[in-house]
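Sequence in, structure out.
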Amino acid sequence: MHYSGMAAMRLDGLIRYDAKLFLLSILVAVALATLALWIKFHLQSRQDRWYTGSSLASAAAMGLAVSGMHYTAMAAAYFIRDGGSRVADSGISPTLLASIVLASTGLIIVLIFAEAKISGNLYTLTSTNHGTGIFGSVSAMAETRRRFAGPIHHNQGSS
């Protein structure tokens, strides 16, 4: 995604990449994403003290995969200016674009919570009866998974 986004940029010049750092960025992304998936599925399958922290640890590893790949890829990039051509103006100011993105994201969040409230699932999302904090405890999340699994999972007794 990083490289396709970089290729889509319109700029007054060219982007070139250092081959060694390019390959290192791919290696960083694949290795850390694999680690994140291993943490999520291997540790979550265990029913001991590692179960509750597996999602947090896997999310952290995936975050490191994304950011590590991005920063390594940006270190690999070098830009060559081509002074002869000019990039056409997009016609939208950066402030307006940021405002549109912010408003759209906020609207999506509000619509998700409104749908959850209307369908009666908001209680499950924000329940504090099972523990402390905005999302409750692991038992509340397990109960939510069990309730919404339906016919998808064959073994509903374990969640």
